[in-house]
Design a protein that fits this description.
Layout lengths: L35 H25 L8 H37 L6 H4 L1 H12 L1 H6 L6 H38 L1 H17 L6 H13 L8 H9 L3 H25 L13
Amino acid sequence: GTRLEHATMSWTDPLTQKAKGTTFSPIFANTKPSGVAEKFLLFPHEAIRFLLLQVKATLEAGVFDGTITGKRKVFFEYFNFIAQVVHEHHHLEETIVFPAFKEKLGDQFPNQLSDEHGPLMKELEELLAFEKLFENATDETSEKLNADFKNQFAQLTTEMITHLNEEEESICKQLAPLIGDALFEELEQKIIKLEQSKKDQSVSGPFLGVVILNMADKNHGWADEETIKKTYSMFPLPVRRILPGMFKKMFLKKQKKFLTIFEVAPSKAHAKTE
């Protein structure tokens, strides 16, 4: 299976990076993503896979105990950010992307892709609710709570990645010619403009940072140099100037605390996809 080869990210100018052209996605295991549709979906999907697999690897390492206040606080601060990223992605799909696809495709659009969002978000909320359960845990319930949390997180990760794979299989491999490159590019611009227009950048800013660095990362990034430059150039200069600081403050600090307290070294944080 694909291995999670890097545990952390640091800010390096994406325009200087030369990615390897590999993905976590089995849909592109034997072929380099090159079309507009592939890049449109991998932009957020690869970041979500990376974040979920990183946390799953931590839980499987047995270093998390939700009944310990310090560990619980750091873990859920990081996990809450990841949950916001997933929510934001699904919200954009439900309000912008899928309606446009349905209008273009009519009955040919596979509604199950949208139908799966509700159950996945419910599972995500159930995992977030464990923070309160851990706070009220007793000696009798703590072991079972930790085991249940680990198992439910693994289940969500598997189901979420399966869902992302299904989207890529359906949209990139089957529907892209019917949708057309022009619509993908139009939706991409619409999403970026929407994210930039938000007064609260606590999610949008770090999310853009995560996806940009994930596509450009020297250890794993999937995009070619041309794609990286094109994507990064979509952001206005003021956004590019504040993104490193915003990303460091709102994401990297959380991630560093997470990796430090759970002693997850970059060279040891490996995880196999299901």
